[in-house]
Amino acid sequence: MAAGTETVTSSQPKWLTYGTLVLSLAGLAVAIYMTISHYTDDATLICSVNAMIDCAAVTNSPEAVIFGIPVAVLGLVFFVPMVVLTSPWAWRAELPALRWMRLGGVVVGLLFVVYLVTVELAIIGKICEWCTGVHVITLALFALILTAELRTRPA
């Protein structure tokens, strides 16, 4: 078997399954950092500030809270289950319900990212580097989970 093509399950290569877990853990770490920053008065996000990039402008805007819930907390609500759903155990289980939760969850996450990017650019007029990091992680997670799902489908 060629390096990097070993499988955790009969259908998915290790790079794909562990890649999704690493991305989920990275997203969770950023969501934790942003949540701590949100709830700590003297904490500020480490972020460049220029005409287009300003994390404070984004994270302190009225749009940073949806139905009374900070967007950073919504990041936790997304990434905690994704860590579980992308764990080696969940991939080995190969249960249809887990597959659908994993795919459905990441699709919802990606749609939320599209909304957040639209808000950043069209309403706030600034972008946040940390938010963009989460957006890129979510997009990459979507790509890997979709790849896994397409590999699972019969030819």
TrEMBL record:
Keyword check for Heme: no
Keyword Membrane attached: yes
Keywords assigned by UniProt, alphabetized: Disulfide bond, Membrane, Oxidoreductase, Quinone, Redox-active center, Transmembrane, Transmembrane helix
Assigned GO CC terms: membrane
Principal place of residence: membrane
Domain Vitamin K epoxide reductase positions: 13-149
Membrane topology: Multi-pass membrane protein
Subcellular location: Membrane
Membrane-crossing residue ranges in chain numbering: 15-36, 65-91, 103-124, 130-150
MF annotations from Gene Ontology: oxidoreductase activity; quinone binding
InterPro entries: VKOR, VKOR_sf
Family to which the UniProt record says this protein belongs: Belongs to the VKOR family.
Protein name: Putative membrane protein
